[in-house]
Design goal:
Layout (H helix, E strand, L loop, with lengths): L2 H5 L11 H11 L1 H6 L2 E6 L2 E6 L16 H24 L4 E11 L9 E11 L2 E10 L5 E12 L5 H13 L7
Length: 181
């Protein structure tokens, strides 16, 4: 099938579950996203926004009760992964896993004390099996950008063990690291 046809709603992509259903299943069922308590805010037109609700166990420290950068980074990486899997399904009409090839998060400022934040991501482009995805962490009203992320993800075969499938695809594409049998 031509990906342009799928994007236009022809063929198997028309049977794709609604974006909101996809995101709700993602945020409630996966380890890190469930622990972080991510909730869906928006999932339309290729833009995904999830909310992290502040909790003391996610704080940087008792002296600085703002969301910890590690929690934000985990949430943004997970959100970018969800965005990539969803876009693959939208374009091809088939489920697929993805694996992170590289990921970068630049923090500009800590969130406000005890404040919730928005995590957003968008797939900027797909080329062959590589997805280029951007993301950000902002205040709820969008006036403060706390950090930005970029990442490249590789499409993997759909698997109940995504990390294993991702490792196999990366090894086949790029070779195994030195010293690995």
């Amino acid at each position: 099938m031509n990906p342009t046809d799928a994007a236009a709603g022809a063929g198997p992509a028309a049977a794709t579950p609604p974006a909101e259903s996809f995101a709700q299943g993602f945020t409630g069922n996966l380890g890190a996203t469930a622990v972080l308590g991510l909730t869906l805010v928006t999932n339309e037109d290729g833009l995904v926004r999830l909310r992290i609700t502040y909790r003391d166990e996610l704080a940087r420290s008792h002296a600085q009760p703002a969301l910890h950068a590690g929690a934000i980074i985990t949430a943004i990486d997970s959100t970018m992964g969800m965005t990539g899997m969803q876009d693959i399904q939208r374009v091809t009409g088939a489920a697929s896993g993805i694996a992170t090839l590289d990921f970068r998060y630049d923090e500009f400022s800590a969130p406000a004390t005890r404040a919730d934040v928005l995590i957003e991501s968008r797939c900027e482009r797909m080329h062959n099996d590589i997805l280029y995805i951007t993301g950000a962490c902002t205040s709820l009203d969008g006036t403060a950008v706390h950090g930005r992320a970029t990442g490249r993800f590789i499409r993997t075969p759909h698997s109940s063990v995504p990390a294993a499938a991702g490792g196999d695809v990366i090894a086949a594409r790029f070779g195994k690291p030195a010293g690995v049998a």
